[in-house]
Amino acid sequence: MRPFTAIGGHRTGPPPTTATPSKSILRTPILGRRKIDHDGMDDIAVPATKRRKVLIDEMNNEVIEFSGRSLDDVNLEVRRALEAHLQGQDTDYDSLKEMFANENRRAGADDVGEDSPPKPQELKRYILALTNCVPLLKNRACNGLVRNILQVSWLGRDEEFYKVYLQLLAALVSAQGSYLSLVLAMMVEKFPHTRARDWLVPDWAPVSRAVMRDRLHAGLRYLLKVFPAASSLLRTLVVSKFPFADDAPRNHVAYVKNLLRLGEYAEELDLDIIDLILQRLVAIDVQMQVDLEDLDDELTTSVAYALGQSSPSASWEGDEDGVDEDDDDNESVDSDESDLDEHEEKVRTVKGHIEKLDAVLDTLFEHYAQHFVDPDSDEAYDRYALLVQSFGKNVLPTYKSRHTQFLLFHFGQLSDRLRDTFVGSLMHIFTSQTRPAFVRQAAATYLAGFVARGAHVPADLVRTIFSLLLARMKAYRIRHDAQSRGPDMKRHQLYYAQVQAALYMFCFRWRDLIVSAPEFVDPDDPASYLGHELEWMQGLKEELSSHVYCRMNPLKICSPAIVEEFATLTHKLGLMYIFPRVEENKRIRLSQFVSDTYGNGGALRDTAGAPQGEEDHQLDPYFPFDPYQLPVSKRWMQGNYVQYQSVPGLNVEVDDDSDDSDESGGEDGYDTDVVDDTATASEDEGHV
Question: What is the C-alpha to C-alpha distance for residues 292 and 357, in angstroms, rounded to an integer?
Answer without folding.
Answer: 14
